[in-house]
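Q: Here's a chain of 253 amino acids. Please give me its 3D structure as tokens.
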Amino acid sequence: MTVSPDWWKDFFSGLVVDFWTGAIPDAATAADADFFTSRLSLRSGDRVLDVPCGHGRFALELARRGCRVTGLDLSKEFLALASASAKEQGLSIEWRRSDMRDMPWRGEFDAVVCAGNSFGYLDDDGNRAFLAAAASALKPGGRLLLEAGWVAEARFPDFTDGREMEAGGVRFASRTVYDPRTSRAESRYTLTKGALVEERAASFRVCMAREILDLLRAEGFEDIQAYGSTGGEPFALGSPTLLVVASRMGVVP
């Protein structure tokens, strides 16, 4: 059965939220934020948009470093957790619930961060719409950090169709099939916590790195740098992910 193209609208709820909030150690988040801060040349007081922000792990970390942060996500459960964490830590962060393509700001942010696999959720038109919205939200010269986990050069050298992990008390098992006719990977997930079992399905657009770089140029980005991890090495075949840093050129429409 084909996965709905809008699967992400209600995917991030229930056990998925429990799993992701416990999946990544704080030390890994801090190390990633070090890379973001360095490559985006962030300074205290800079305005940063984290989209989609999930449960706020990057939004919270960047706010702790003095940035003025806005977090955008569609998941009510993720945003509730993010807001509660910010309140507990005494951090002032603006939260907005909307589709990642729906950014109403024009020329307001020094940086936009899109980390994780979220760029792969949408189709080609959706990817273009997201990048156009990100460009409009940035000040001229502002920078975008884009992570694209579903990149062919990163995924296929050691592709596996099944994975099992545990985090946040949740057992997570997945099966993935790649369809070369659509350039999409479809994944089925089983999440288990005690007697509770939930099933989910997702679909990801698999791009070549060059496709993403060309999209960025088409949407008004320049000075594009591609890295293979937060270690800062250049992106290459077999890199674990694609991290792109690019600057918004021109004037804001």
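Q: Can you summarize the key feature?
A: The mean pLDDT is 95.
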